[in-house]
Amino acid sequence: MRAVLLLALVALAAARVEPEGLLYPERLPADAPKRRPNIIQILTDDQDAHMGGDWWQPGLRKHLANEGLNFTNYITNFAVCCPSRATILAGQCAHNTGVVGLGGDRGMLNPLGGFQRFVDMGLEERTAAYVLQQAGYRTGLVGKYLNGYTSQTAWHVPKGWDRWFAFGEIDYYNFTISDQGANKLYGTEPEDYSTDVLTAEAVKFIQQARDDDRPFFLYLAPYACHRPHIPAPRHIGKYKGLKIPRVPSWNASEQHTRQKVSFMRDLPPLDHETADALDFEYQTRAETLLAVDDMIEAVIGALKELGELDNTYIFYTADNGYKLGHHRLSGKITAYENDIRLPFFARGPGVPRGLVLPHLVGNVDLAPTWLDVAGVKDPYAAQRDGISLGPLLRGEAAALENPDTHRVGILIEKPVTTAFLDLHVSILVPEARPGALDLFEGRRPRRLANGSWPQQVLDFEFQSRHFNERAAARLSDKSAWYYGYEKEAGFRKYIELALQNGISLEGLIKGSNEEFPVAYYGLRTYSRGGTYKLIQYPNGYELYDLTADPHEVHNIYSTAPRELVAELETTLAGLKDCKGASCRVRSISAVSANPLRR
């Protein structure tokens, strides 16, 4: 025993970990499994709560929704990739991680973000993965880490990860992987499809439990359903004809948009071409998730084969949501439900089966939850802003029966004014007839070489000429290469593509600027008394009663009872700089009283 303690102290000193207790897990209940539970976090990209409905993914329904908990009010603190992922790993709101942008080497992107910012803030040694590793877990990251982590930084394997298989240049094909710090390039063959590559690696990681007595933590992060929404070959066309539900917020009417803050009032309505493009994007987003469903099946199968399924917690969620023409906008970043409310499913030992819970939970809760279910003492507990979901996962009656016992309010934020400039576009493929696109240097459209490709709309990501030139330089000639020619200022551009399967086409792209050039703070509530959202912009407020107006088209800020508005504003003001326990809103009396329902 003394020898074991000495080795632990030596390891602690070598790692320069100051807080006590890092290597000492909490004692587990007497009836708990002898081996500590495994933990798997599956994290998709840009999957909103609607797109996370288990009807898209039968495997998700079968293995997670039916076998565990489905949380319908899971909220991301910051609705864009990198800040959200930093929050997930560190268990802190974006204003505390300091990661409030995407980072990267393109001047259009916020420098206060990205992988390098995460490193500079000292967060890699405070992640839940690092704590779990120090407590004896075998840890693995398979898939997407943080924006700004590229093939140029692939040599860097962060502390806290035993297995590192992370995207460098990220895509569905023609991507790179940092395999324990060494760059690995994948091509354009069907077996190179990135979701399938990650699935195979995840299964290998799980199978290593045969020869390793340690419990494991696996962070599995596919690219789906991020743009450019390329389904696996076996899934192309599976949801052909699928259309976006025409809810009130979709292509919102003038009556609704004029209730928004000033810079949103002049957004033009969607035209028919844009609507068709967005419908096709909706279809292909759903189709990319079918490979994630296959991933779930493979993970469950590997756990069953090892006899580990009943001793493994599996969590499923996304980094942020996504709009497709809702509020006349596309993309993410806003405080609206499409962007901040995400799917969240959980199963594991002792987790009630088949329950749908309205409790207000969020991405800030994941790190504390992982450590709680592992029985690991967290030396950074005071710095975590979230709340463990342990009582809900353990089926404690008081927690399940009263959602207000968890929290009644949660912060949503974009605390910087720097724009996230990201053009969201679709290629509109015209009829192949002479002169149809005789607009640029005499170019004329060519006929599609392979009629199997959808001819009416092809989704595409066009961020900037600089980015496209760089991408063209690094992609092989078997892959999609592209050049952009500006026709005019704005969002109509000429495009020429040579695709991996031999199709050639030309077309015009039309896009909406995903730039959301203002900071905002928001408060999202859920209580048995009512569900509200207050958004504070530099030039105004929006307030929605989500019970009566789930699509956020009726701004009631000027008409709501003043006691409700005042308490929501006071609560939000207290959250902007919150840290630790002060981020956990347990009571808002005006919400509980629900003056709008009197």
Automatic annotation (TrEMBL):
Pfam family, one: Sulfatase
InterPro entries, sorted: Alkaline_phosphatase_core_sf (IPR017850), GlcNAc_6-SO4ase (IPR012251), Sulfatase_CS (IPR024607), Sulfatase_N (IPR000917)
Modified residues (3-oxoalanine (Cys)): 81
GO molecular function, one term: N-acetylglucosamine-6-sulfatase activity
PROSITE patterns the record matches: SULFATASE_1 (PS00523), SULFATASE_2 (PS00149)
Record keywords, A-Z: Glycoprotein, Hydrolase, Signal
Tagged with keyword Signal: yes
One biological process term in Gene Ontology: glycosaminoglycan metabolic process
Keyword check for rRNA-binding: no
Domain (Sulfatase N-terminal): residue spans on this chain: 37-376
Signal peptide coordinates: 1-15
CDD domains named among the record's database cross-references: G6S
Post-translational modification: The conversion to 3-oxoalanine (also known as C-formylglycine, FGly), of a serine or cysteine residue in prokaryotes and of a cysteine residue in eukaryotes, is critical for catalytic activity.
Family classification: Belongs to the sulfatase family.
Name this polypeptide is given: Sulfatase N-terminal domain-containing protein
Native species: Chlorella ohadii
Taxonomic lineage of the native organism: Eukaryota, Viridiplantae, Chlorophyta, core chlorophytes, Trebouxiophyceae
